[in-house]
Amino acid sequence: MSGEQAAQDSGAGDGGTPTVWDVVVIGAGPAGASAAHAAAVTGRRVLLLEKAELPRYKTCGGGIIGPSRDALPPGFELPLRERVHAVTFSLNGRLSRTKRSRQMLFGLINRPEFDAALVDAAREAGAEVRTGVTVSRVEQHGPGVPDRRTVAVIVNGSGGAAGKRDEEIVYARSVVGADGSASRIGAHVGVKLDQVDLGLEAEIPVPASVAEDWSGRVLIDWGPLPGSYGWVFPKGDSLTVGVISARGDGGATKRYLDDFIARLGLAGFEPSVSSGHLTRCRADDSPLSRGRVLVCGDAAGLLEPWTREGISYALRSGRLAGEWAVRIAESHDAVDARRQALNYAFAVKAGLGVEMGVGRRMLTLFERRPGLLHAALTTFPPAWRAFAGITRGKRSLAELVRTHPMARRALDSVNRA
Ligand SMILES: Cc1cc2nc3c(=O)[nH]c(=O)nc-3n(C[C@H](O)[C@H](O)[C@H](O)COP(=O)(O)OP(=O)(O)OC[C@H]3O[C@@H](n4cnc5c(N)ncnc54)[C@H](O)[C@@H]3O)c2cc1C
Question: Nearest C-alpha to atom 39 of ligand 1 is from which residue?
Answer without folding.
Answer: 179
